[in-house]
Design a protein that fits this description.
The complex is a heterodimer of chains A (about 575) and B (about 200).
Chain A (H helix, E strand, L loop, with lengths): L1 H24 L1 E8 L3 H19 L3 E8 L1 H9 L5 E3 L2 H11 L2 E7 L12 E6 L15 E4 L5 H12 L4 H4 L1 E4 L5 H8 L5 E5 L2 H8 L7 E4 L20 E4 L5 H12 L9 E3 L5 H10 L12 H7 L1 H85 L8 H24 L8 E3 L1 H18 L4 E4 L7 E3 L1 H18 L8 E7 L3 E8 L6 H6 L15 H11 L3 E6 L5 E8 L8
Parallel strand pairs in A: 1-2, 1-3, 6-7, 6-8, 13-15
Antiparallel strand pairs in A: 3-10, 4-10, 4-11, 5-8, 5-9, 12-14, 15-16, 16-18, 17-18
Helix pairs in contact in A: 5-10, 11-12, 12-13, 12-14, 12-15, 14-15, 15-17
Chain B lengths: L6 E5 L3 H13 L4 E4 L2 H7 L6 E6 L7 H10 L5 E6 L4 H9 L4 E4 L4 H33 L3 H11 L4 H8 L3 H15 L4 H9 L5
Parallel strand pairs in B: 1-2, 1-3, 3-4, 4-5
Helix pairs in contact in B: 6-8, 7-8, 8-9
Chain lengths: ~575, ~200
């Protein structure tokens, strides 16, 4: 127990001592460095600067953080960097987005002036004599490290000024860092031309990575004091940048240290910061970086910068969202209402159908009662006859015939009752394959007594076998009876009464017609015939024909009226057959 | 002279009713003929037999009532019993006014129907007898001239030859000639016998 507590106490003490000592001796300063040829090259390039800072400002511990522009930007956004050494283009973006500012600009003591230190070279393999100027790049493959590389952008400006739009007129090949990849792409003929930062080719030559006459720089421009071949204007060298939250005293100390740096051979030195106006020009021309409409701006910055417009847009968004929600709510509500209305209409339709059927049944009722009375009278009479014969001691075998006939007549009465019951049934049936002959026979059987009572014989020609149709049998019967009833009423006032019903099937339709020799239809009646509640009858509902047409059309057919060659008024309709001759 | 057998005609467009009524009447021994329409009845009707027509009021084509009229026009001796699907008072009244025996509603009581058929046959027999007399008379009188019939009527009325000659505005001699011819055609020798010949009936 005592052992454990002693160890724990020692550990805690040592931790406290260590932390206190570090805090007192050195403060951490993180400096981001843009690496275009890998972390090692970046470190090598800026080693002298770091060494100088370390010597001059021993109270700070300097950390080199190398990476791509995107990586460094993210680090700045996360407040992980105090300073950066980066290319002018990236600096411009940081200046706009994160209020970065340049403390110093690199200076090569033996090289170019600080404001004309960086450019880009566009190069091709020397065995491509046909490619001489930047205008010749049209339709060629052009390699570069990345779309946001500074050298690439510098070259872009020049190429565009020669009337070639690299995005549209060339095939761009972005090979990524390090810049050596661009050289390799051209050498391996994966690209016809390469864009590389100024002096990179010279450096590769010095390293022995390329041959002296292997590549040729095209579209050359004067390079001034810069001892490298370039195809572009020259831009200021890299800045040493501080970000917004870097403490001012630290920045001052660093700037003083940089300006006091005495560089050796091939080492970078630092001078007063350039205004980087030429870089702004470049970016403005290309409409990239801070000049790209919306693309590079952080949303938060944009909102702050344009708060009134943002407020308007915000209101607009809220209005739009409200609108969308409201519209979808309304759509759902209306859909529901429509469904309800549809359902109500369907029920009304069914109700109407039922009403019309009941009305038709009402008109046929007394005739049907008579029709049922016939077999009942026959049954009773046969039965009484049997009784008498039995009483008079007749041979029971002689009664068999009569008893059989009684059964037949009872079945006949039952059939009539079934047809009537079926016809006034309320439940709507689905459209199923049916044998139309049976349905049509039933319809005629239901109607015949009414016709007979009126002194008419319906001449019906219904073939025994008809192709199957898909139908609600009840609705089909209703249409037929309705047409028969109309025909009967049309001829009621005349002596010569004729109703002819014809049925035939052709290749894809079943045709049914009911013709009468009545006086025909007045033009006005013909026009409104199928309108609901239009009627020429004293007691008519005016629903029969409109309903019949609705039913026929719901079955995919049509109901028409015409005067046939014999002068008869002919209501005819057709229904489509089931495509495959189906068994019913 | 043997009495002709009575017959029942059943007229209904419904074969079952036709057949059932036939079955009933034959079970009491009546011969019958079933007809599907009025036209068939008129074609088959035998006016020399006592007959009852059991007639459905509602028939396709010519209706039952129209057939009844046609039977009357043809001086049919058949009695008519109507059967009907439903009581139609105006039709029933019309039928009875035109001499129908009855107007029965289907389904009818078998006994009532058989009774009415019996009544109808009875009436038909009487009608047949009357018709026989009339025919006999017509046959006798058919051989006489018109003037002879006028003279005979006045003789039967008990008038003298002189009075007859004055009535008919002819001479007494001419009346005597007619009387002579009448007695020759009747095959009788006296005026008394002539009167007896003219008024006799087969049944009398």
């Amino acid at each position: 127990m005592g052992m454990v507590s002693r160890i724990l106490a020692a550990l805690l003490a040592s931790l406290c001592l260590f932390g206190a000592a570090r805090a007192e001796t050195q403060k951490d300063v993180h400096i981001g460095v843009l690496a275009f040829r890998g972390a090692e090259e970046a470190e090598r390039t800026w080693q002298s600067t770091f060494d100088h800072l370390g010597r001059t400002l021993p109270q700070y511990r300097f950390h080199l953080v190398s990476g791509t522009a995107a990586f460094l930007t993210a680090a700045v956004a996360a407040h992980r960097l105090d300073f950066l050494i980066t290319n002018p283009g990236h600096y411009l973006e940081l200046k706009v987005d994160y209020s970065a500012s340049a403390l110093a600009t690199e200076q090569d003591l033996e090289g170019p002036t600080p404001s004309e230190a960086v450019g880009a070279a566009v190069f091709v393999l020397d065995d491509h004599p046909e490619i001489q100027s930047l205008a010749d790049l049209r339709n060629l493959r052009v390699a570069a490290v990345a779309p946001d590389a500074f050298g690439y952008r510098a070259a872009l400006r020049e190429i565009m000024e020669r009337g070639v739009d690299p995005e549209r007129d060339t095939k761009q090949v972005f090979v990524g860092f390090p810049v050596d990849e661009v050289m390799r792409a051209v050498r391996d003929r994966r690209a016809d031309a390469g864009i590389i930062r100024s002096c990179a080719l010279e450096k590769l030559l010095a390293e022995g990575a390329i041959q002296k006459d292997e590549f040729r720089v095209i579209g050359r421009r004067p390079s001034g004091a810069l001892n490298c071949q370039v195809s572009t204007r020259l831009y200021p060298g890299w800045p040493f940048v501080k970000v917004a939250q870097t403490p001012a005293p630290l920045a001052r100390q660093i700037a003083q240290a940089l300006f006091g740096m005495q560089p050796g051979q091939d080492e970078k030195a630092w001078t007063q910061p350039d205004a980087y106006g030429s870089v702004q020009d470049l970016y403005r021309t290309l409409k990239v970086g801070p000049y790209a409409p919306f693309t590079r701006l952080g949303l938060a910055d944009f909102v702050v910068e344009h708060r009134y417009i943002a407020a308007l847009i915000g209101l607009g968004l809220i209005w739009w969202l409200t609108h969308v929600v409201r519209v979808s709510y309304l759509v759902r509500k209306r859909t529901h209402e429509l469904q309800l209305a549809h359902e109500a209409a369907r029920q009304r339709g069914e109700q109407m159908e039922h009403t019309v059927r009941l009305s038709l049944m009402g008109e046929m009722a007394s005739s049907l009662a008579h029709e049922i009375n016939q077999p009942l009278a026959a049954i009773l009479t046969y039965a009484r006859g049997c009784e008498r014969r039995i009483e008079s001691g007749a041979d029971p075998a002689s009664l068999r015939d009569a008893v059989q006939r009684i059964a037949v007549q009872a079945e006949r009465a039952g059939d009539i009752v079934r047809r009537m019951k079926d016809f006034v049934r309320k439940n709507p049936a689905p459209q199923v394959p049916i044998d139309p002959a049976a349905a049509l026979h039933d319809a005629v059987a239901l109607f015949e007594p009414t016709a007979t009572a009126a002194g008419v014989i319906v001449e019906s020609e219904i073939p025994d076998t008809l192709p199957a149709i898909r139908a609600d049998r009840l609705q089909l019967e209703e249409v037929v009876i309705n047409l028969l009833q109309n025909a009967l009423e049309a001829i009621s006032a005349q002596d010569d009464k004729q109703i002819i019903m014809r049925v035939r099937g052709d290749r894809d339709r079943l045709h049914i017609s009911v013709a009468d020799n009545g006086p025909g239809l007045a033009p006005e009646a013909r026009e409104h015939l199928f309108d609901p509640f239009y009627t020429t009858k004293k007691n008519g509902l005016g629903l029969g024909l409109s309903l019949s047409r609705t039913i026929v059309e719901a079955h995919g057919g049509r109901l028409l009226v015409e005067t046939d060659p014999a002068g008869m008024t002919n209501f005819r309709f057709y229904l489509p057959l089931i495509e495959e001759p189906a068994r019913v | 002279m043997s009495e002709p057998t009575p017959i029942i005609y059943i007229v209904d467009d419904d074969p079952a009713v036709r057949d059932a009524v036939g079955f009933l009447v034959s079970s009491v021994g009546y011969p019958f003929e079933a007809c599907a329409s009025g036209a068939e009845l008129l074609q088959r009707l035998d006016n020399a037999r006592p007959a009852c027509v059991v007639l459905d009021v509602r028939l396709p084509g010519v209706s039952g009532l129209e057939i009844q009229r046609e039977l009357q026009n043809r001086n049919s001796i058949a009695g008519v019993v109507f059967i009907t699907g439903h009581g139609d008072v105006p039709k029933a009244v019309r039928a009875m006014r035109h001499g129908a025996i009855d107007f029965l509603e289907k389904p009818f009581d078998d006994q009532v129907l058989l009774d009415r058929i019996s009544d109808a046959l009875q009436a038909s027999k009487i009608a047949l007898t009357k018709q026989g007399r009339r025919e006999h008379m017509e046959r006798k009188l058919g051989a006489l001239t018109e003037r002879e019939r006028e003279v005979l009527a006045l003789v039967i009325a008990g008038k003298t030859s002189k009075a007859i000659a004055a009535d008919l505005d002819i001479s007494a001699k001419t009346v005597e000639n007619h009387r002579h011819n009448l007695m020759a055609k009747a095959g009788v020798g006296s005026v008394a016998q002539l009167i007896s010949w003219a008024t006799e009936t087969p049944d009398a």
